[in-house]
């Protein structure tokens, strides 16, 4: 009972984080083709600057390999420094263009220009108040996803279907970061305004029908529903919906 109450409290904190960041990273601005080689992001889940890059990745529906680098981490921080020259995050690596980049604003501009062929939309541009609100948003989530509590490392990276603005998905990403577990982040942003709302309470009533040919359509055909977070672990063959179940699994398997 206490664990469930704590989980609900964390969900409310995560909702506050999404609200303070204006629910960016929910809707797809332009779905672009996945690059031939996957993007790599050295990332701290609770960092407001890393969050802004993940928001842009959701807006473009781009998947990315996440290499968590929480404070005190020992798994990927040295690798990040060897790659870019310093331990600063976010750090984006794009092998398709031999690009290694720091600074969230530069990364966001690069992603929209390189993969969408357009300037950064107004909604995703830097505003003078955003760093302050971003920091408050991290506090609302109790600064989870900033410090390491390293667990057992998997032989193969995990796979998480998520979108940045999802409060429930954020809880799972925080745990993955805390345990320094590498994973492929499959962005599954909402592709139309009628999809706004929780999986079972969308604005458009009636049976859910995703846009044909999109990533949500492919997920729906595979699972019979579109709901995040969804975690797959190739090391054990597990596939799990529901944030509470996923968190329990990660604690038991890797914590």
What does this molecule look like?
The chain is α+β, with helices and mostly antiparallel strands and 255 residues long. Helices cover 38% and strands 14% of the residues. Helix 1 (2-20) runs antiparallel to helix 5 and helix 2 (48-59) runs parallel beside helix 4. It is globular and about 50 Å long. 40% of the residues are buried. InterPro entries: GLR_AS (IPR011767), Glutathione_S-Trfase (IPR040079), Glutathione_S-Trfase_N (IPR004045).
What structural category do the secondary elements indicate? alpha+beta
The total strand number stands at 8
- The tally of helices reads 8
Strand content: 5-15%
**Cα radius of gyration in angstroms:** 17 Å
| Mean pLDDT over the full residue set | 90
What's the SSE pattern? HEHEHEEHHEHEHEEH
Q: Can you summarize the main beta sheet?
A: 8 strands, mixed
- Globular, elongated, flat, extended or rod-shaped: what is the shape? globular
């Amino acid at each position: 009972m206490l664990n469930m109450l704590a989980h609900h409290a964390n969900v409310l904190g995560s909702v506050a984080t999404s609200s303070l960041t204006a629910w960016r990273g929910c809707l797809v601005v332009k779905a672009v083709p996945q690059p031939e080689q996957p993007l790599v992001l050295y990332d701290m889940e609770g960092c407001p600057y890393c969050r802004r890059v993940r928001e842009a990745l959701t807006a473009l529906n781009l998947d990315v390999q996440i290499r968590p680098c929480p404070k005190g981490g020992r798994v990927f921080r040295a690798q990040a420094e060897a790659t870019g020259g310093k331990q600063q995050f976010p750090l984006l690596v794009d092998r398709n263009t031999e690009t290694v980049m720091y600074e969230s604003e530069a990364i966001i501009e690069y992603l929209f220009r390189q993969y969408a062929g357009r300037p950064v939309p107004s909604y995703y541009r830097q505003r003078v108040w955003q760093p302050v609100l971003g920091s408050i948003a991290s506090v609302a989530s109790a600064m989870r996803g900033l410090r390491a509590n390293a667990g057992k490392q998997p032989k193969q990276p995990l796979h998480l279907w998520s979108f940045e603005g999802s409060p429930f998905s954020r809880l799972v990403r925080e745990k993955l970061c805390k345990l320094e577990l590498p994973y492929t982040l499959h962005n599954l942003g909402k592709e139309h305004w009628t999809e706004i709302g929780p999986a079972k309470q969308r604005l458009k009533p009636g049976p859910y029908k995703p846009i044909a040919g999109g990533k949500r359509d492919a997920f729906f055909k595979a699972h019979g529903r579109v709901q995040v977070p969804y975690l797959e672990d190739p090391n054990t063959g597990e596939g799990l919906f529901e944030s509470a179940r996923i968190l329990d699994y990660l604690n038991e398997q890797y914590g």
